[in-house]
Amino acid sequence: MTLLELEHVDVFYRDLQATFDVSLKVDEGETVAIIGANGAGKSTLLRAMIGLTQCRNGRIRLAGEDVTRLRCDLLARRGVALVPEGRRLFSSLTVEENLLLAMARARKGPWTLGRVYELFPAMKEFRSHRASDLSGGQQQMVAISRALLTNPRVLLCDELSLGLAPKVISEIYACFDGIRKEGVSIVLVEQDTVRARSASDRLYCLLKGKVRLAARSSTVTPDAIRDAYFGETHA
Amino acid sequence: MSFLPTILNGLMVGGLYGLFGLGLAFAFGIMRIVNIAHGEFIVLGAYIGASLLSVTHMPLPVVIALVAVVTFGLGWALQTVMLNRMIGPNPVPAMVATMGLSIIIRNALVEYYGADIRAIDIGPLQDEGVSIFGTSIGVLPIIIFCTAVLLFVLMHLLLTRTTLGRAFRAAADDFEILETLGFNRKRVYAIAMGLAVTLSAIAGLLLAIRSSYSPYSGVERLLISFEVVIIGGIGSLRGSFLAGLFLGVVQLIGLRINPNSGPLFGHLAFFLILLAQQANLPGLFIRRRT
């Protein structure tokens, strides 16, 4: 069943049009990757999905309900969660306070403080540290846990690998199997096409704000991705 | 001639100054709003309290509680009706709007209550005293000081122990992410402004009990609030408290030396601290959130 659906969506970043007529859908329990170069409109699209930026044209549906004009906090309570680019933890709060805040307005669901500490056992050791004192990888664990604790139906992840060591990225991606098991849909925005492809069921490639490629990740060829990623000039 | 009673009295006024600063810093720290009408709300607290005391003859704690409720509502309405429409990266629209509001409140007070200088009389308690360290000190100032300390402690507990308090601190860090966790930003802001105004109005009422006030006192109170915030830092409860105590003590010692000096010595001390900060000398109570 389709959980999140975008129809002909135009989103503007200030006065600049970031996406043109983008349509995509995410099924329940599915992991969808959105790839594309810098400035392709990926992050802006994610902001529209959680209501931080209003889309100017088009529709967004969540589980069949029209949520196009819904405020961000109301969308969040209906089950959309964001792991933002650059983590954006509340830096003056401790790790555990970050997590507690996410639980305060959470939906009912499987994710509890105990469960996220199970997912990232290392987090227990720095739970009382200020969020600003953590390494990038540690921050990413907290950011993912914070989003999970709202018990989302769809988890939006913006550039998880940004600024992290390859080993840490692999650890982060390894935990995604555990998250998927709970039936959460995941939208992965990535610049790293190889990782995005191997972690997803389907992928969309954006070029200059338009969908250039929509394909199953298991069958799409690297050449097709490359052409969509860089545009025609490359071929 | 001993300065001990002067210092003690200064500390007790200073606790209230700390609350003035806390209210101002609270609104600025969370919402980036500089509330120019802050001083008028402080004075408004005094007038509302005085009216309740003279009309209903209720005991002081009840009046304080009522003033708290009313002023919380005023702050909440101020944010909901007016300031929530002006939030954004530019702090100037809200400053201009609250400046206009301060003029309206001030003149409304003159119109309704008259421009004369008043003092609140709460009866025999005003004259009672106890002996501490061999000096006599009023019971009332002690009660007022304890109330101020209590409010600081309650604020500390609120900010560190409750979801609402965490949401306040998180809103100061990154309000967009707070929204993605399901918090209504404008409602969080409205509660924050309600609290900021409440703290200041209660302090204004308590100050009015031990000194005088008029509709024009707001400007002076606002100035003290700014001084407390600048000396004590924005994110620090302890900084506000200590800065308030410092200004209170300096002002009363100044008054003792020259009874006509008014608040002059407090402002002078503030000026010296500003100079010291410019010269990169370690200030007295300078604490910045990192």
Seen as an oligomer or otherwise, the chain set is heterodimer
Order of helices and strands of chain B: HHHHEEHHHHHH
Overall tally of domains of chain B: 1
| Gross CATH architecture of chain A | 3-Layer(aba) Sandwich
How many beta-strand elements of chain A?
A: 10
Q: Largest interface by residue count?
A: A-B, 26 and 20 residues
- Output the CATH class name of chain A: Alpha Beta
Strand order of the largest sheet of chain B: 1-2
Q: Count of DSSP helices of chain A?
A: 9
Q: Approximately what portion of the residues of chain B adopt beta-strand conformation?
A: under 5%
Spell out the CATH superfamily of chain A.
P-loop containing nucleotide triphosphate hydrolases
Concise synopsis of the structure shown:
The complex is a heterodimer of chains A (235) and B (290). Chain A has helices spanning 42-49, 72-77, 95-104, 113-119, 136-148, 166-174, 176-180, 193-199, 222-230; strands at 2-13, 16-27, 31-36, 55-62, 65-66, 80-83, 154-158, 185-190, 202-207, 210-216.
Question: What is the topology?
Answer:
The complex is a heterodimer of chains A (235) and B (290).
Chain A: E1 2-13, E2 16-27, E3 31-36, H1 42-49, E4 55-62, E5 65-66, H2 72-77, E6 80-83, H3 95-104, H4 113-119, H5 136-148, E7 154-158, H6 166-174, H7 176-180, E8 185-190, H8 193-199, E9 202-207, E10 210-216, H9 222-230
Parallel strand pairs in A: 3-8, 3-9, 6-7, 7-8
Antiparallel strand pairs in A: 1-2, 1-4, 4-5, 9-10
Chain B: H1 4-31, H2 38-56, H3 60-82, H4 92-113, E1 129-132, E2 135-138, H5 139-161, H6 163-180, H7 185-210, H8 217-232, H9 237-257, H10 264-278
Helix pairs in contact in B: 1-5, 1-7, 1-8, 1-9, 2-3, 2-4, 2-7, 2-8, 3-7, 5-6, 5-7, 6-7, 8-9, 9-10
